[in-house]
Amino acid sequence: MASQHHLAKADENDENSRARGDGGHGGAAAGTGSGTGAGAGTAAPDAARGGPGAPGNAPPGSGTPRSAPSPGGSGGSGGGPAAGGELKAGLKNRHLSMIAIGGVIGAGLFVGSSAGIAAAGPAILVSYALVGTMVVLVMRMLGEMAAARPASGSFSEYADQALGRWAGFSIGWLYWFFWVVVLAVEATAGAVILNGWMPAVPQWAWALAVMVVLTATNLVSVGSYGEFEFWFAGIKVVAIGGFIVVGLLAVFGLLPGSDNPGAGFAHLTDTGGFLPNGWGSILTGILMVVFSFMGSEIVTLAAGESQDPQRAVSKATNSVIWRIGFFYLGSVLVVLTLLPWNDPSITDEGSYVAALNSIGIPHAGEVMNVIVLTAVLSCLNSGLYTASRMAFSLGRRGDAPASFATTTTSGVPRPAILGSVVFGFVAVFFNYLWPDTVFAFLLNSSGAVALFVWLVICCTQLRMRRVIEQETPEKLVVRMWLFPYLTWATIGMIVFVLVYMLFDDVGREQVLLSLLVAAVVVAIAVVRELRGRRTAGHADSESHDLSGKT
Question: What is the secondary structure of 310-325 as a DSSP string?
């Protein structure tokens, strides 16, 4: 989702650019949610553990890791609502394989890379490499926890267990908020492309249509979601793979009929050097590309609805290095070797369209529009799925309406899906009526949530490693490298990016508004937990008094 929130504002300001495939929506990286399933080994919700007043629930800030219950449970006594249903293991291995691969390729890669190239020149490769390294490390940490304890809420449930209930509540709702805003961004972006092809149909009608269709697929079964995502991801993988192969042939003068002179790697240094805008441009590039990776971590959630979640998580975690290296670094390298970094066509037409036009590929703009639309639909499909599964997990733990924890006979959390899509529709409504006020606030206030999620994953893994080693060491099939040193290094990298954003004109607003929303959510979580403890304390006191009288 290449700097989704940097680019999303251009959805309203540059519709003509978007219609040709290099506009401003920052497509969220395709991802999935997850859930418990037959044989998925999902940790029981807080409700089953005894609610906020249950023994072992660490108070806010205590930092006492809590042991997870036996996998697969959903019942038990306690103060929270019991689970109202179970998700089913309907995702096949081929679904997860394509979700993992395609999940790295968001629409932001196609439409956002041109801005990064213009800002940093060839050095944008370093920016992608640094952010990619950070994501690989975060994925390794999440993979370690998810392989040992697959859960419908993934990092939200792990934060609940390791950092306290307030943490699981806060990051779960922030993550849900992020994805439902993305639904509106992507629906609008897809509507612009479709309206360009068929202008007789208004944009709002196209946005409504794509939302309704993909909501329907999610309501049928997890298998239908997986099948749609399999083909969406397949198109993206074929498109990027074909672009890299054709581009490299043209770069070295081996492509028959190519209009590109084929300068090899000369363009990396022949226009002002590799760092034409100085070392600081690498940091600027990081801010512009960091959000394009959001969603790459979500395959670990999807594994919860597969037959063998541990194997799926291990495979996805181990392959993330080559996925990022090939699709991101490989494709951007091809653009930079086909054209000088400051070629006006890169920003005017979009980096991938400009590269294809330099080779002489006919109708490159329309071809890229089809690919971008596919990426947008993929993001919509996965965003709705992800948001609904997080809502389902929150409901199971008593942190959301109890109805969110119910499922149909086919294992679909219908209330969680409908609740998520309703908010998405409302956000689309805001986008058309108040794009520069209400919708802009929604975009900016969710702008840094990706970094918050990654930071929470790191902090959670620091504590969860000890718990897993003590309780189920045999399940540590995926281990974070050089623990805890690389974990702390990753925390430092994320904090550095957040602080640096405060000195960026666009990033500053995103960080401050995201922190404001996060503070409100955390405050609600702490108040709920304190009230729950107070209620539980009164209940225990009354029970003790009654037993004493008898």
Answer: HHHHHHHHHHHHHHHI
Q: Which of helix, strand or coil describes residue 471?
A: helix
* Residue count (the chain): 550
- Residues whose CB falls within 8 Å of the CB of residue 133, separated by 6 or more in sequence, listed in order: none
Question: Which residue type, as a one-letter code, is found at position 246?
Answer: V
Compute the distance between CA of residue 157 and CA of residue 40 in angstroms, rounded to an integer: 15
CA–CA separation, 208 and 432 (whole Å): 12
CA–centroid distance for 492 within its chain: 21
Consecutive H or E run containing 394: helix 364-396
Tokens encoding 246? 């054709």
Q: How far is CA 85 from CA 70, 406, 407, 420, in A?
A: 18, 5, 5, 18
What pLDDT, in 10s, does the model give residues 159-183? 999 999 999 999 999 999 999 998 8
Answer whether residue 498 shows pLDDT above 80.
yes
**What's the whole-number mean pLDDT along residues 439-458?**
89
Phi-psi region for residue 295, left (φ > 0), alpha (ψ -120 to 50) or beta?
left
Whole-angstrom Cα distance, residue 485 to residue 271? 39
Q: What are phi and psi of 15, to 5 degrees?
A: -65, -35
Tell me: the pLDDT tens digits for 513-528?
A: 999 999 999 999 999 9
Angle formed by the axes of helices 124-148 and 155-163, nearest 10°: 70
Burial class (CB in 10 A: 0-12, 13-18, 19+), 212: exposed
d(CA 294, CA 281): 22
CA 393 to chain centre: 17
pTM for this entry:
0.81
Q: How far is CA 528 from the centre of its chain?
A: 27
Q: What backbone torsions phi and psi does residue 84 show, to the nearest 5 degrees?
A: -100, 5
The number of CA neighbours under 13 Å toward the Cβ of 321 is 4
Question: Crossing angle of helices 309-324/124-148, nearest 10°?
Answer: 170
Q: What is the pLDDT of residue 80?
A: 39
Least confident piece of the model among 399-403, 518-522, 529-533:
529-533
Q: Is the pLDDT of residue 81 over 90?
A: no
- Grade residue 505 by pLDDT with cuts at 50, 70 and 90: confident
For residues 398 and 47, is the Cβ–Cβ distance under 8 A?
yes
**Euclidean distance between the first and final Cα of the chain, in Å?**
64
Give the span between the Cα atoms of 457 and 384, in whole angstroms: 22
- Is residue 327 classed as helix, strand or coil in its secondary structure? helix
Backbone angles phi, psi at 257, to 5 degrees: 80, 5
Instruction: Please give the structure tokens belonging to residue 131.
Output: 């952010």
Q: Hey, what are 125's tokens?
A: 């490769």
State pLDDT tens for residues 42-71. 333 333 333 333 333 443 344 445 544 433
Taking residues 492-511, report their average pLDDT: 91
CA 488 to CA 61: how far, in whole Å? 19
